[in-house]
Design brief:
Layout: H1 3-20, H2 23-39, H3 44-58, H4 64-81, H5 85-94, H6 100-113, H7 119-124, H8 131-155
């Protein structure tokens, strides 16, 4: 079994456990998925398939701990795989349903896409009542703007 197949097997095992576990253990299964994503060794396609599933979990009616573990894993994936906005766009659409701690994860992910389409959502949170959310929104907006400003330099 090559390394990538072994990583896929670990993720499938974690998903199997996730599907058969009670809520109290489901976040631990997502921690295992996060650990695999943190290796940065999945193929882009495999990572994107995992993120699609994580986004679905994050937007589900699961408890806060499960949603937080899913969002944390999406953040990890965004660091290692440079996720496209289209993949995490459902998080942008559902961000208003999250509490401030979870909004921070979504803003981090949106900023890491470097996609201008995320900017209107991010900028809405610059006026949020929680200072931490405003700070995270500012950081995400800065990340998106920085990428836009540096893009012409990359083509030069």
């Amino acid at each position: 079994m090559n390394g990538n197949a072994g990583l896929r097997a670990l993720i499938e095992s974690a998903w199997t456990e996730f599907n058969s576990s009670e809520a109290g253990r489901r976040d631990l299964c997502l921690d295992a998925v996060n650990d695999v994503l943190d290796t940065g060794r999945l193929t882009r396609n495999d990572a994107e398939r995992v993120v699609e599933r994580l986004v679905t979990v994050a937007l589900s009616d699961e408890g806060r701990a499960v949603r937080e573990s899913a969002l944390n894993a999406v953040c990890t994936a965004s660091t290692h795989y440079g996720l496209p906005y289209r993949l995490v766009e459902p998080l942008a659409a559902g961000v208003d349903t999250f509490e401030p701690l979870l909004i921070a994860y979504v803003l981090t992910v949106l900023g890491s896409t470097h996609d201008q389409a995320a900017l209107p959502i991010v900028e809405r949170f610059l006026r949020h009542p929680h200072s931490e959310v405003r700070r995270d929104a500012s950081d995400a907006a800065t990340e998106i703007h920085r990428h836009r400003e540096s893009a012409p330099d990359k083509t030069a």
